[in-house]
């Protein structure tokens, strides 16, 4: 029976659950569980709170489950801006421009000194694909095809496509999806907690120099770009050690390697600045972004470049010399329309400042938990982007088993507190709790989150 016009059935919570169970393929979860357990259906959100179809309220400490809803739920002015734009002009292919697209590109690059060009797409994976294609085309057009290799970092994540997984440093996410695209080369992670004998700037220099060692091994004339997250996200909230980023940029300049920063997670205030790389005073050549661009109110991503990168494709003597790429839904006007409102709200409400202030508060509360629970080995993060690495033994730093980490997350969910954790990503090291609440978070919100984690750890670990 077609339920499209069956109002009673469409408004029946049980019918919705059963329709979901019968027809929806859920992301990042073993769907067999839904043979015996109802799928979770979120039906409403306001501020930092969401309600499921059974009426249960949750405080959301991961901004929509995947670090996206930076300005919180229920922002009518964003929805109104999208509605008004769609009625006026909903879509045209990106070979033409749009009013919100032009306005947003100008506003965005004004907050990214040194970068000037915006290529619109619709997901973080797609934005990174664009960057990889740019690097490859530059190699063919300007370097005889040699500088085509792209370096990526262990534990970093750049998306779900085959090319993005080829640049993915999380083995369990990559498992069973090979063979992968050639020309992607891994460099070591920079997690100081797992460094062993060095700390601080000493480790920062060594971790950066490890990248140079890979470059020299592969051949500098074969490396086109280095793609890194400013702070490793799902790989464990890894804040690079002092001196790391400065040395990384120095290495890229030395060998004429484009520096590509993946800001899909860290962008738009998550760390307390517009972009995570701005915490370190570096100048990237390419920056990709998605999640927080429109805060989940519309699908949009951006690949932003310097004018120098853009100019490498300006050559009307070569019929194939321009960037021969399209993102169909990069032409949808809802994305930049929503993004303009999100940017305005972020500035009007000083959400960058709130991220800094509340991030420091959350970090302090997590350190208090660390004093109370021996299973917390380290607390680390920047702004409203915090992690707590869990261990079975502090002295040996043996990771807490993933099953217990996930049990803590499940216990929090049962309490009405939504947190995240690294899972099914890095064999043996899926042991970090992840916190990325919307940038509107208050001390009261964060107290509630930390209290839920405290109770869960007590029950699961003791």
From TrEMBL:
Task: Enumerate the InterPro entries for this protein.
Answer: Aminotrans_3, Aminotrans_3_PPA_site, PyrdxlP-dep_Trfase, PyrdxlP-dep_Trfase_major, PyrdxlP-dep_Trfase_small
Per UniProt, what is one GO molecular function of this protein?
pyridoxal phosphate binding
Pfam family example for this protein?
A: Aminotran_3
Give yes or no: UniProt keyword Transferase: yes
CDD domains attached here? OAT_like
Provide the alphabetized UniProt keywords. Answer: Aminotransferase, Pyridoxal phosphate, Transferase
Q: Which cofactor does it need?
A: pyridoxal 5'-phosphate
Q: Does the keyword Transferase apply?
A: yes
The family assignment reads: Belongs to the class-III pyridoxal-phosphate-dependent aminotransferase family.
| PANTHER family (alphabetical) | AMINOTRANSFERASE, AMINOTRANSFERASE CLASS-III
Q: What protein name applies here?
A: Aminotransferase class III-fold pyridoxal phosphate-dependent enzyme
């Amino acid at each position: 029976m077609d339920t499209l016009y069956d109002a009673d059935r469409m408004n029946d919570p049980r019918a919705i659950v059963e329709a979901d169970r019968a027809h929806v393929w859920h992301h990042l979860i073993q769907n067999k569980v839904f043979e015996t357990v109802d799928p979770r259906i979120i039906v409403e959100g306001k501020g930092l709170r969401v309600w499921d179809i059974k009426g249960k309220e949750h405080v959301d400490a991961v901004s929509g489950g995947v670090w996206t809803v930076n300005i919180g739920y229920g922002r009518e002015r964003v929805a109104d801006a999208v509605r008004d734009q769609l009625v006026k002009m909903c879509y045209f292919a990106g070979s033409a421009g749009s009013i919100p697209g032009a306005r947003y590109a100008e506003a965005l690059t004004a907050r990214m000194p040194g970068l000037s060009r915006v290529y619109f797409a619709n997901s973080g994976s797609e934005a990174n694909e664009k960057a990889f294609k740019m690097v490859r085309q530059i190699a063919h057009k300007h370097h005889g095809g040699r500088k085509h290799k792209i370096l990526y970092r262990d534990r970093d994540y750049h998306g779900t496509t085959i090319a993005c997984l080829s640049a993915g440093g999380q083995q369990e996410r990559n498992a069973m999806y090979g063979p992968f695209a050639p020309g992607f080369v891994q460099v070591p992670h920079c997690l100081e907690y797992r460094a062993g004998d060095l700390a601080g700037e000493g480790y920062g220099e060594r971790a950066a120099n490890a990248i140079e060692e890979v470059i020299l091994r592969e051949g500098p004339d074969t490396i086109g770009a280095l793609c890194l997250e400013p702070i490793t996200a799902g790989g464990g909230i890894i804040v690079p050690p002092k001196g790391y980023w400065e040395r990384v940029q120095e290495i890229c300049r030395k060998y004429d390697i484009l520096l590509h920063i993946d800001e899909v997670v860290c962008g738009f205030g998550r760390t307390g600045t517009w972009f995570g790389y701005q915490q370190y005073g570096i100048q990237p050549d390419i920056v990709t972004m998605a999640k927080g661009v429109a805060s989940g109110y519309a699908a949009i991503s951006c690949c932003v470049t310097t004018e120098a990168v853009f100019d490498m494709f300006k050559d009307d003597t070569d019929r194939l010399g321009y960037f021969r790429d399209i993102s169909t839904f990069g032409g949808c006007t809802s994305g930049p329309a929503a993004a303009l409102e999100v940017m305005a709200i972020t500035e009007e409400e000083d959400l960058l400042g709130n991220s800094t202030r509340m991030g420091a508060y959350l970090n302090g509360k997590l350190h208090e938990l660390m004093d109370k629970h021996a299973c917390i080995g380290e607390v680390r993060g920047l702004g409203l982007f915090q992690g707590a690495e869990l261990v079975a033994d502090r002295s040996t730093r043996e990771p807490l088993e993933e099953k217990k980490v996930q049990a803590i997350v499940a216990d929090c969910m049962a309490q009405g507190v939504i947190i995240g954790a690294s899972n099914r990503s890095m064999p043996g090291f899926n042991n970090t709790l992840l916190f990325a609440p919307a940038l509107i978070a208050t001390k009261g919100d964060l107290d509630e989150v930390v209290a839920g984690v405290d109770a869960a750890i007590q029950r699961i670990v003791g």
